[in-house]
Write a structure and sequence with these properties.
single chain; about 280 residues; alpha/beta; eight-stranded mixed beta sheet; 8 strands; about 15% strand; globular
């Protein structure tokens, strides 16, 4: 059923396996949303959800995690990025599930991707992009500082959307939705610590040509914590429904333990299944 509601997907690199479990449960039970908004790994998850490609992302990140052309420190020896996001949009043979853009375009959902511009360090959005613009927006949103190069987009060079807008529920509200499902990838009580001196210096040095972006990245913990506080208030007022891992399986940004990745995916799916009646009641009341 297509609900007049928005689904918001936080980023979190490989923690996005939790979100994939949630959204695959939604696909299994035919829950769709007028608006899907994703940032970073949440954008990649959202694209698969809009295209109704059940199981694609968990398959990619378990069956192909150790493919040296996807994620590998050895890529640095060839002066390539550790994380090759182009890999996700290429064909890799009989066991690979290509992204189904035709299904994506046929979807009744509108899809918004969030990225951060290098020039001014502010959030920029791409709504319902297709073709190369879709790939560029997804790669920009998912490109982590230090791990990936900036991506060229119609809005200029961009990186990780989470730098400027980590949990973009504000976009759902600005679109006019009074029913918003938010999928976080951190436990509810998680708060970011202030940026340390070493990381601050690394950001300022690495992005010396883009000081506004460096400052946005330095200020990210304060922004994130303010978003969490605002989201808690929305949820208490019944204006948002939040899904967050109760007992997060600890995974690194580029986690290589595929058993842990699969376990995190199944945790998300099980939680969504357990809360399905409550979620539908929220959407329909």
């Amino acid at each position: 059923m297509l609900y007049n509601a928005a689904l918001v997907l936080e980023g979190g690199a490989m923690r996005g396996q939790y979100s994939t479990g949630i959204t695959d449960a939604f696909l299994k039970h035919h829950l769709e949303f007028q608006s899907v908004i994703g940032v970073s790994a949440g954008a990649l998850c959202g694209a698969q959800f809009v295209a109704k490609q059940y199981g694609r992302m968990v398959h990619v990140n378990t069956a192909y995690r150790h493919n040296k052309d996807y994620i590998s420190l050895r890529r640095l020896l060839k002066k390539e990025e550790i994380l090759n996001l182009d890999f996700l949009f290429e064909d890799h043979g009989w066991d690979w599930h290509n992204f189904d853009e035709r299904a994506y375009q046929r979807s009744a959902s509108h899809f918004t991707i969030v990225a951060t511009t290098l020039k001014d360090g502010k959030a920029v959005t791409f709504t319902d992009p297709t073709g190369k613009d879709l790939e560029a927006a997804l790669k920009a949103s998912s490109s982590m500082p230090f791990f990936s190069a900036p991506q060229d987009t119609p809005a200029g060079k961009c990186l990780d959307g989470g730098v400027a807008n980590s949990i973009p529920f504000d976009l759902a509200l600005s679109q006019g939705f009074d029913k918003v499902i938010v999928v976080r990838t951190r436990p509810r009580d998680y708060r970011k610590k202030p940026t340390g001196r070493v990381l601050k210096e690394m950001l300022e040095r690495s992005f010396k040509d883009y000081p506004a972006f460096a400052q946005a990245a330095i200020n990210r913990p304060a922004m994130y914590n303010a978003q969490v506080a605002a989201l808690d208030q929305l949820e208490a007022a019944g204006k948002a429904y939040v899904l967050a891992p109760d007992n997060l399986i600890k995974v690194g940004r580029l986690e290589n333990n595929t058993k842990k990745l699969a376990e995190l995916y199944h945790q998300g799916m099980a939680q969504a299944e357990d809360l399905l009646t409550e979620i539908i009641d929220y959407l329909e009341k």
